[in-house]
Fold this sequence. Notes:
Blueprint: E1 9-13, H1 17-21, E2 32-35, H2 38-43, E3 53-59, H3 65-78, E4 82-85, H4 99-107
Amino acid sequence: FRERWRPFCPSMLDTVGPQMLGTDHPAPFMTFTFEVAPGWKERVPEVVHEDGTARAQVLRREFNPRYYDLMAELEKLTGNGVVLNTSLNRRGEPMICSPTDALNMFFGSDLQYLIM
C-alpha cells in the first residue's frame, strides 16, 4: 500500500533530465522536485505526482558509473532512460543505511528476496 501523496520517484540518465524536466540541474539524491514536461507525464505516469512534478534522481556517469551504465543499457533495449525508484524503508521508518538495517527491514517484512 502506498498513499497517493507519497509518489514513486524517477531515476534517469542525465541525457533524459533536460527533456523530461526541462533543466540540467544536478539532482543526484532525489532531493529536488521538478515540473515534468507534458509528453513525459503520459510516458511515465507512475513517477509523476498528482501536481505534475517529480522528485527526480538524475544520474551522471562520473558519480555512479555502474548504475549509469546499467541505465544506458536499459535505454538501448527499451528506448526509455527512466526507471521507477524509491527509498528503501518501511512506512514510518527511516531509510536503510547499512546492511544490518537492510536485514532487519527484510526479516520484518513480507519481501521474498533481498539482494545486497
